[in-house]
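for the recovery benchmark. tokens below, seq after
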């Protein structure tokens, strides 16, 4: 019998553990992390309005925590080319503050 339980809930991020058999300490399990990204999108929208045009430093975009954690797990978080690919991807256009290409 499978069982799922929230073990961490901070802000807009919820983590659940799914256990195949909760009575067996060695039972297989999976951890699910979900995030409501609507607050992130609201922040990006607000930052587009206040970012100075022509400034030397620009906020390129905002990466949701669940995406940053995924990139840390697969080893691409510290790769500047992977970060550029992430923000240049049209699927992530709503997360961009600055509209230029990296």
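predicted aa per position
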């Amino acid at each position: 019998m499978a069982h799922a339980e929230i073990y961490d809930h901070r802000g807009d991020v919820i983590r659940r553990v799914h256990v195949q058999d909760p009575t067996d300490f060695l039972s297989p399990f999976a951890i699910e992390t979900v995030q409501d990204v609507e607050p992130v999108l609201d922040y990006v929208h607000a930052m587009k309005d206040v970012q100075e045009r022509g400034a030397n430093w620009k906020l390129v975009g905002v990466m949701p925590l669940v995406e940053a954690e995924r990139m840390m797990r697969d080893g691409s978080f510290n790769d500047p080319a992977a970060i550029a690919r992430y923000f240049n991807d049209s699927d992530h256009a709503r997360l961009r503050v600055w509209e230029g290409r990296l």
